[in-house]
Specification:
about 525 residues; 11-stranded antiparallel β-sheet; 7-stranded mixed β-sheet; 10 helices; 34 strands; about 30% strand; elongated; binds iron/sulfur cluster
């Protein structure tokens, strides 16, 4: 890293982001990511190295040494298997803690040669500084969180908005460049802090204008207005009727599955028709969509099926005496089975609550059994199509094109990413598949996140890669980032989350990495 040691000698300047902190000896810079250690600028956090299945004990016993000489592999020389022994044993250098290329004309801090399945590979490793980035949050709940487009606030600042509801989930979009840089300084600071916390899988509370307060934490159940959510619904009300119609046949005369989106009515639904279930004379409030499927039976809320009702009978009108008969058996349930009541019509055709028969309870319990645990999913969405590409190649468009042609595998902390079609390098990654502590911030404000580009060594050469900086894994581990100028670098060994991520150098979905 092109770090200058200024006078007075006790301060060093960090140029790892545009803030250009002057850091006093023994102190850290504004982001707490760099510090002045005995007059040397050091990256405070360790570089995270992934190990596959072998025990790299000998490597752990060899802490990074101050750089004596950069030992790039010879770009033009044929590589030999002996150069890649560590990679063969399963070592992957991630961007977590790797430091960055800012102000961007520099090659990435780690450009690591390796060998997998007898293919020579190179992985370009850096920490990206993302100004254009956001979090897409999926919250598995039927409970009403707030109107679409409503502002989402953290500590009073607007940090995002409610976006479309999806199947069994409510979606939020948090962060984004307009909240990071387009509002007040405080809005930007709160936004970046929220994003960093959620990205690093810590709990954060947000409030939605005209809606609920929600505690979000990646991989955990959401807490809506102080109540932890347990179940993600089995499906909409119509789907629940379709799934369980046969199991209700003979046990109930009528079933209503209450749902804020589509409330299902067994006797009118096609599933009921196919099973010859007789009309019951039930009348349901709301807008009839198709037979047995009703929209807007109530207002959205945190009651039955994501509606605002506590009494399910409130969505029913008087029964049609032409079809309804005293003694008719009615089950009303929510889409998760958490709410369920059993009624029998009296002589006046009024539903009277009674004890639910065990056989009916069994089917209701099966609804619950078919619900998945409710959880919060946090996806980081970032634009890597900017200046960080210069750390990979002198001609950045070649990297973009290579990614679009699937010549490059992009990972974030070793986790697979989804690359959006179209221009640029817009990626999305599940933060729970990344190493803990993957995200940082800088006060510009922006998010710091790891990114790695893995491709064949000959493809890297062809796209104008920084071949003089390609080093073996051993050299990388021994000396740290090429620009560390002798500053010590620490490493942290991790294993990829078991069963979650493919090994980054051996991803079966990426055919270019295979022989
Ligand atoms: S905020 Fe951090 S990265 Fe930026 S100059 Fe200061 S210490 Fe360096």
């Amino acid at each position: 890293m092109n770090l200058t040691q200024d006078s007075p000698a006790a301060k060093v300047e960090c140029n790892a982001c545009p803030v250009l902190c002057q850091i006093t000896e023994g102190r850290a810079g504004a982001c707490d990511r760099y510090a002045n250690q005995n007059g040397l600028l050091v990256r405070v956090d360790p570089v995270v190295l992934l190990r596959r299945d072998s025990n790299p004990a000998s490597l752990e016993a060899s802490p990074l040494q101050p750089r004596t000489a950069l030992t790039p592999i010879q770009a033009s020389a044929p590589s030999s298997a002996s150069s890649f022994t560590s990679a063969e044993r399963g070592v992957f250098v991630t961007g977590v803690g790797s430091s960055t290329t800012y102000p961007d004309y520099k090659p990435a801090p780690f450009i690591v040669a390796s060998r997998s399945r007898e293919v020579d590979l190179v992985t370009v490793v850096t920490e990206g500084i993302f100004s254009y980035c956001s979090l897409k949050i999926k919250i598995d709940t039927d409970r009403y969180l707030g109107p679409e487009q409503a502002a989402v606030r953290c500590r009073g600042e607007i940090v995002g908005h409610v976006t479309t509801a999806e199947y069994g989930s409510q979606m939020l979009s948090l962060g984004g460049v307009h909240h990071l840089t387009g509002g007040s300084k405080k809005e930007g600071r709160v936004t970046v802090e929220l994003m960093e916390a959620l990205g690093n899988q810590r709990a954060q509370e947000v409030s939605i204008d005209g809606g609920s307060k929600v505690v979000l934490q990646a991989g955990r159940a959401p807490i809506v207005n102080g109540v932890p959510e347990a179940r993600m619904r089995v499906g909409c009300g119509s789907a629940a009727i379709g799934i369980f119609a046969q199991q209700w046949q003979g046990l109930c005369d009528e079933v209503v599955v209450v749902d804020d989106h589509i409330t299902g009515v067994l006797s009118e639904h096609q599933a009921g028709k196919c099973l010859d279930i007789a009309p019951t004379g039930i009348r349901v409030r709301g807008r009839k969509s198709t037979p047995g499927r009703y929209f807007q039976v109530a207002n959205p809320g945190t009651g039955w099926g994501g509606t605002d009702i506590d009494d399910p009978l409130s969505i029913l009108e008087a029964w049609n005496p032409k079809f309804a008969t005293p003694g008719l058996r009615l089950l009303m349930t929510s889409t998760t089975g958490e709410h369920a009541s059993w009624y029998v019509l009296d002589e006046e055709l009024i539903p009277r609550p009674e004890t639910m028969p065990a056989a009916v309870r069994e089917v209701v319990d099966r609804i619950g059994e078919n619900c998945e645990p409710s959880r919060v999913s946090v996806l980081f969405l970032g634009g890597a199509g900017g200046s960080l590409r210069a750390g990979v190649t002198d001609n950045p468009i070649l990297l973009t094109r290579a990614i679009q042609k699937s010549l490059v595998q992009v990972t974030c902390g070793g986790a697979p990413v989804f690359i959006w079609p179209g221009g640029g390098i817009t990626l999305m990654v599940d933060v729970t598949r990344m190493p803990m502590g993957s995200f940082g911030t800088v006060p510009t404000p922006a998010i710091v996140a790891p990114i790695e580009f893995t491709l064949r060594l000959d493809d890297y050469r062809a796209l104008g890669g920084h071949m003089a900086y390609v080093r073996t894994v051993e050299d990388t581990i021994e000396h740290g980032a090429w620009h560390s100028d002798g500053a010590p670098t620490r490493v942290r060994w991790e294993s990829p989350p078991p069963g979650l991520n493919p090994w980054p150098l051996d991803d079966p979905s990426f055919s270019r990495l295979r022989p």
